[in-house]
């Protein structure tokens, strides 16, 4: 089992908002999590646990800009911080649940509710403007809008 950040399996509810890629790299470094940039897999990223330690592999071929890098890095951090990691041969149901946990963590970290609400109330109210404001993809903004809406939060 991996030790450290989130390894207990409980979803980390208290999330510190991070606005820059550097802040995410700093947090990973503080937690002793190695990050490698390599074309090791045919995916944007993968998180592994080897010998009790986490490592994140980012594939630069998939990371065309800083917004996409933020999304991908926060998603992988979500796996680690919530303990939502699984074996390659895991069931589709388990993988889906873990992917959803990681996505929720990424939303709460990169697009916190209060900051989203404030941005919208001050005129940043289109998906593409919000994506630029938070330096994330439009896809993540849409996920955030759905995530908060399902929880009854209104802009």
Which key terms come to mind for this protein?
155 residues; single chain; 3-stranded mixed sheet; globular; mainly alpha
What does this structure look like?
The structure is a single chain. The model has no long low-confidence stretch (mean pLDDT 89). The radius of gyration is 15 Å and the shape is globular. The protein has a 3-stranded mixed sheet with strand order 1-3-2, covered by helices on one side. Helix content is 49%, strand content 10%. With 155 residues, the chain is mostly helical. It has helices at 21-30, 66-82, 92-110, 113-121, 127-134, 138-150; strands at residues 34-37, 45-50, 53-58. Strand 2 (45-50) and strand 3 form a beta hairpin. Helix 1 runs parallel beside helix 2 and helix 5 (127-134) crosses helix 6 (138-150). The longest helix is centred in the middle third of the chain and has 19 residues, at 92-110.
